[in-house]
Amino acid sequence: MYYQRIIENAVVEAIENFPVTAITGPRQCGKSTLVKHILSNITSDVLYLDLERPSDLQKLDNAEWFLSSQKEKLICIDEIQRRPNLFPLIRSLVDEWNKPGCFIVLGSASRDLLRQSSESLAGRIVYKQLTPFLFAEINNHYTIEEYFERGGFPRSLLSKNDKLSFEWRRSFIATFLERDLLQWVNFTPATMQRIWQMLAHLNGQTVNYSHLGNALGISNQTVKNHIDLLESTFMVYVVPPYSSNMGKRLVKSPKVYVTDAGITASLIGIRSFQELTGHPSFGAIWEQIVLSNIKGNFPEADIFYYRTTNGAEIDFVVKLNNRTLAVECKASFTPILSKGNYLAIEDIFPDHTYVVTPSPESWSMNKKIDVVSLEKLKNDIFLQS
């Protein structure tokens, strides 16, 4: 069964108007499925190359000759980061062909990493990022409890039972550590696993490279390099602190979240929602779910957190279309804002404040402060933007 993805129409529009459309996102988040679904509705001839398939990779031994002979087709190249030397050739071909819809490239490396290899495509390429399933994409079929436990990766969420879901996630983690890291220099599976697991236990906390380095027996720079790679491969989000000219003493270290609830649960050894509800990470995983859904629904938004040394704090400050929104995450059906939350709201003075809970119910807590579900948050931000 195919589940409609929120970015689908944006991808189709990009194909129709740009020579090259790049779709980035973590491995196994559904990029290939999305593109194949879109291509099935396109009348023009299509060539699909998966660079993890040896036969497709071999076709590019003489890439210039092969791709030049495919002028009348829409060429899709999956896992493009494995052959970054193709970008100059793609630039030359799209300039020669002078039409939209020449190439779709898919990559499991971030836009920033791909941009380093595709600078010559400036003005010819548009980027779209696909995440694991957003809750709005599957909430008619799965509960928030299942989303908490299994996360949004399709093969995890769509598994026949919890045991198979957990096994898939453990396999995904092992594959990333033992195979995907091989394409990056100076990274070892053992060190990455220790850092990734520690970040899962510290999910949503400010990161102190010195403390992590001392705990793991490695240098601060090694810790930072590994976190940078996890961010570049969509395995963690790094949320910077919000700053303004308020003269407040702010906490300045970034917060780090593992990007998927199911992966976090696996990294800390949790197999069921029942185990998760009693775990200290429960609230942080809810923050992570809210964050990933804001990012997925509003990729153009800038997201920060706010915390001062005197205790004022709010989980996320969302800057979108000249509006400032405060978002506080409460993993409870009866949320209560703390004194620190109210102090932060006074400091930030947002256009609106949302308290996001796992409950399907929404109500007004105070003037310009609403308690909302995940779905209501998405709809309200959309209307305000």
Itemize the secondary structure elements and their pairings:
Elements: H1 8-17, E1 20-24, H2 31-39, E2 46-50, H3 54-59, H4 63-68, E3 74-78, H5 86-97, E4 103-107, H6 111-117, E5 125-129, H7 135-138, H8 144-150, H9 154-157, H10 162-178, H11 189-201, H12 209-216, H13 220-232, E6 236-239, E7 255-258, H14 261-267, H15 273-277, H16 282-297, E8 302-307, E9 313-320, E10 323-329, H17 339-348, E11 352-356, E12 363-366, E13 369-372, H18 374-384
| Topology, number of strands | 13
Content-based structural category: alpha/beta
Q: How would a crystallographer describe the biggest sheet?
A: 6 strands, mixed
- Tell me the strand percentage band: 15-25%
Oligomer: single chain
Q: Kindly report the average pLDDT value.
A: 92
How many helical elements?
18
> Looking at the structure, what is the overall shape?
globular
Helix percent band: 40-55%
Radius of gyration over C-alpha positions, nearest whole angstrom: 22 Å
Order of the strands making up the biggest sheet: 8-9-10-11-13-12
Outline of this structure?
With 385 residues, the chain is of the alpha/beta class.
What does this structure look like?
There is one protein chain. Helix 5 (86-97) links the parallel strand 3 (74-78) and strand 4. Helix 8 (144-150) packs across helix 14, helix 10 packs across helix 14 (261-267) and helix 12 crosses helix 13 (220-232). With 385 residues, the protein is an alpha/beta fold. It has helices at 8-17, 31-39, 54-59, 63-68, 86-97, 111-117, 135-138, 144-150, 154-157, 162-178, 189-201, 209-216, 220-232, 261-267, 273-277, 282-297, 339-348, 374-384; strands at 20-24, 46-50, 74-78, 103-107, 125-129, 236-239, 255-258, 302-307, 313-320, 323-329, 352-356, 363-366, 369-372. The chain is globular. The model has no long low-confidence stretch (mean pLDDT 92). The strands form three sheets. A six-stranded mixed β-sheet has the order 8-9-10-11-13-12. A five-stranded parallel β-sheet has the order 2-3-4-1-5, covered by helices on one side. Strands 6-7 form a two-stranded antiparallel ribbon. It is built from 18 helices and 13 strands. 43% of the residues lie in helices and 17% in strands.
